[in-house]
Amino acid sequence: MLQAIKKNTMPNAIFDINNNNNTVSSYYTINDVVTIVNSRLELNQNITVDYLRHTYGDLIENIDGREVIEEITGFRTIWGPQGARRIPTDWKLRPLVANHYELVLYNIFERVVGIENVSIQYQIDNIGHRYDFMIDYENKKYLIEFEGIGHFTVNRFGETVHPLEQFRNFDNPNYILIIWPYWIQRCELNLEVILGLKEEGLGAIWSSDYHFGQFPFENSYEIVQTLNQQFKIDRNNEVGYMYGPETENRNNPENPVIEEKILNNRAYTWTVDKLIPSGTPDNTEERKYWLPERLKNNGL
């Protein structure tokens, strides 16, 4: 049974695989879920919209008149490793796409360069580290690693791997290594920037509740800047547009942290410092670089 219809006059964060440059992901239409999932299933195990409605009906919501599945509690449950209701592993094509975010990236990459030019879990000379993706385009090979929030936190053992370690240790002139962090929008434009086809990429921090100022690294400023430069996401010498709303002509809601935790936080436990990475030069202009317009004069 569908959950109650939600009325929403603001951007609704519904992803559209056919318009992925202009839609950030928080919800996926059930039609897109079918398209995205079937790209990595055996042909005789392809799913349908009716299959989703019958098997995962409790995960389907109705937002602005569209049947959608939320990306964390919904899409991850369908595709991901946990839960008895997941798509059976033996239905999936090998090698496996590790998680639903990588599954979306796979579909985006395929749209840009063609399925024949995208490899999954790629090993150089079949040895060593497995890279999430390898893209072969115009006689150049691009290794792409997607790094979710867990790569920028301290794990349960109190340890973390420095996000730039791979960059520092990578030494192979036959490949170009790209680290794709979670705040870089999963869209065709960002791949086209990597391939040299476009000049400006896009960042999006709509649904994240973990921010640059919370990273446990003393040089978080260097880390984020280095990763951002791969995608050229600056706009007017700043990146605060990533927090929305409706920037770059996108269906991009404002990140809830702005209103709920910073502007309306009377206890001041959340300040703009949560959005500014450690190591940022301590001057107003450098700090404003990281902030959306509504916060530029808030506590600086």
Structure description:
The termini are far apart. This protein is globular. It folds into two domains: 14-85, no CATH class; 100-295, no CATH class. The strands form two sheets. Strands 1-2-4-3 form a four-stranded mixed sheet. It is 25% helix and 14% strand. A hairpin with a 6-residue loop joins β5 (118-123) and β6. It is α/β, with parallel strands linked by helices. It contains nine helices and eight strands. The longest helix is centred in the middle third of the chain and has 14 residues, at 100-113.
Please give the radius of gyration in angstroms: 20 Å
Number of strands: 8
Overall residue-averaged pLDDT value = 90
Shape: globular
Total of helices = 9
Give the structural class. alpha/beta
Largest sheet: number of strands, sense, barrel closure: 4 strands, mixed
Helix content: 25-40%
End-to-end distance, in Å? 49 Å
Order of helices and strands: EEHHEEHHEEEHEHHHH
Portion in strands: 5-15%
Major beta sheet, strand line-up: 1-2-4-3
Poorly predicted residue ranges: 1-9
Q: How many structurally independent domains? A: 2
